[in-house]
Design brief:
It contains five helices and no strands. By secondary structure, the protein is mainly alpha-helical. It comes from Juglans regia (English walnut).
Length: 136
């Protein structure tokens, strides 16, 4: 009979790879450890070899063929302190730019309103004058 949500004892064991398995490559799961070992070996070499071996990263699909500056792509949020470029200003998103433009336009309109240069301000002044004349 089915026992519902809970399973019996033999399921759910977690298998961990040892460091030796990771380095030798017998483990099927993490392939990034091999790359890190290769990078460490390259770093130990001379700088001339590093300059010769610099190659762009291979990317799958069309991303490797076409270089596009897409503003909609997610920007990396976590940067190391050494990688931060202080001169580079971060671009605002479209929504943020529109919000700032909207606020500036509203402030500009309110300044003109106070000076009496907008149509709404002229109408208000005309109403006030009519009320003032009617009171007299």
């Amino acid at each position: 009979m089915g026992r519902g949500k809970f399973k019996g004892k033999p399921t759910g064991h977690r298998n961990f790879s040892t460091h030796e398995e990771l380095i030798s490559g017998s483990s099927s799961r993490p392939r990034t450890f091999k790359r890190e070992e290769v990078k460490e070996d390259v770093e130990e070499g001379s700088e001339e070899e590093i300059e010769k071996e610099e190659e762009p990263e291979k990317r799958k699909g069309t991303l490797g063929l076409i270089e596009i500056e897409n503003p909609n792509l997610v920007k990396p949020k976590n940067l190391k302190a050494g990688n931060v470029d202080m001169e580079k200003t971060t671009e605002l998103s479209r929504r943020e730019r529109e919000e700032i433009e909207k606020q500036k336009a509203h402030e500009r309109y309110m300044r003109l309103q106070e000076q009496g240069k907008t149509e709404q301000a002229r109408k208000d002044l005309a109403k006030e004058q009519k009320k003032g004349e009617a009171r007299k």
